[in-house]
Amino acid sequence: MKKGYGKIIITVVVLLLVIVLASNISPILEKITGEESSGALKGDQDVIQMLSSEESDSSSGSGAAEIGTNAAEKKKDSTPHLRDKRLLYDNSTEVVTMYLTVSSGNSKEGTDHTWEEVNTYSDYDYSEWGVDRYKVEGLLQVGTEDGIAPGNLGYGRTAPNATVQVRGQTSSRNAQKNYKIELKEEMGLWNGQRTIALNKHMTDGLRFRNKMCFDLLSGIDEIMGLRTTFVHLYVKDLTASGNASASGEITKEGSEAEGEVTSPDVGFVDYGLYTQVEQLNKTALRTHGLDKNGHLYKVNFFEFYRYEDVIKLATDKDYNKTAFEKYIEIKGDEDHTKLIKMLEDVNDLSIPVDELLQRHFDEENIAYWMAFNILIGNVDTQSRNFYLYSPKNSNTWYIYPWDFDAGLFYQENMIYGNVEYGGWEKGVSNYWGNRLFQRCLKSEDFRKKLDAAVLELKEYLSEERISAAASKYREVTEKYAFSSPDIYFEALTPQQYDEVVKGLPSLIDFYYENYVKSLECPMPFYIGIPELKDGKMTYTWEVSYDFQQDDISYNMQLSKDYDFSEVIDSYTGYWPSYTSDALEPGEYFLKVEAADESGNTITAFDYYVTNQSSKIYGVICFIVRENGTIDVVYQEE
Predict the structure, then answer these.
(1) For residue 11, what are the domain limits?
(2) Can you give the pTM of this predicted structure?
(3) Is residue 81 a part of any domain in this protein?
(4) Do both 629 and 538 map to the same domain?
């Protein structure tokens, strides 16, 4: 070989080595420095994140690509993530005025009732009677405080264009009701919606929490949202005695000139401020870019157990839709095959949770939904106040949020003396009673992804953002809260209202600290029904769980009073049961608490509700009868 050729070959080899090294050194430098070695502009990071939204990092779980992470090292996530149409949202504080004229209809449509009947009975009454909720006919007209302009819904109409009923479950017992207004076919839409849900939020002293939280979702890619609008409602009741001949027509000085704004005549009663929340149904699915033909269920009380006696195929001879919908209401496809398969797998503990999530869920969806609710302290989401959605030809189920009026509520509860957000209703332990969520939380990988979501959302839910939002909504709602009719049901004084609004921004850190603490504590458990056998009382409870795998001890106390001022028996030890002498007939209270090696404690799931509606966590009340039988006292909140 000639000497010149040798130099050329050596040069080529060196160049190839340089190229190979250059192609591999970038990820290494990124891991060491935490910076992009490519020199890409900071603005390009959003593009990288967007393009990588389908990938899931095994350690962080973030839906966006982590800067400095080698894409080749990321585990491919084949699950499609839901993304909302953000242009749907303007987050306006405009107040729309609605005029509703109600009248009695006919028995075939179930509208042959009075407005008084509709507003008297709750969801619990209808469940007890086994009948559908009472409805009336309604003429809905939309405008401003000045009246109805041409082109608006209901302009110039005198005949009913809708049906009206009370909506909500627990809230149906409130003095101020929530309403569901269903526009009839061919009678037009309002804001693209046929079903109009008006929420009073009577128990929210600020009257804006639900809207504020939904509007905050519009800035979070990983969580779907719904549109909201403030509504000032007026109602004219034609079902009352003596009003049957009154006109539901809206006039202005008796004029009906074409193109003229008409204003309300006498007979309309001011019902105050409501929040209209877009009803999640087939129309809404289509509006938000989802499959309107998919499966959609509204969760009433559902902990993802199999519920074999109730959750059945519609073709099953023992299928009972009424019983089915006590757990989840059917809002989409009525073929429950896919739902049942998912529930069977959730309850098959031989299936690893990672495989379970891959088969049936979007892990990002669950993590971000749970993270948001944890950070706003929206505890009433363990087993209700959300929807389950799955596209028709997909096996993946997604959680769609619903109802945030109990979020950021800690200060207000303290003012009322309510013992809420206590015991286990903090952080991750709040979700431990749900079979699906418990299985997720037992996975260290899921907890890492949840933690990444919590940290990301905590930064988004900054004090500055919450403060600005609260101030904006307060300008609208405060004047209604302290004006008729809402002032007669407002639980806060003006001074307390001011204090609560100003305290909202600091609550995110408060809830975050409780989340961190919950990861260190044992998980809650249920107390069993005491047994009397062979002259001995046996008390049992479930085994608690600890993420750090610490040994767990239990402290049991027995008393005649729920405040445990006088303890008549007790036990401390590692065994989840205790046997002692038989008790005399009477009422007793049993409390059990779990503790880990570091002294972190948790109460049992069970709680006793006092006559003042306060919760005593970790306690059951039971009665020993004269014949030796034992009954546990269950109370509704």
Answers:
(1) 3-76
(2) 0.84
(3) no
(4) yes
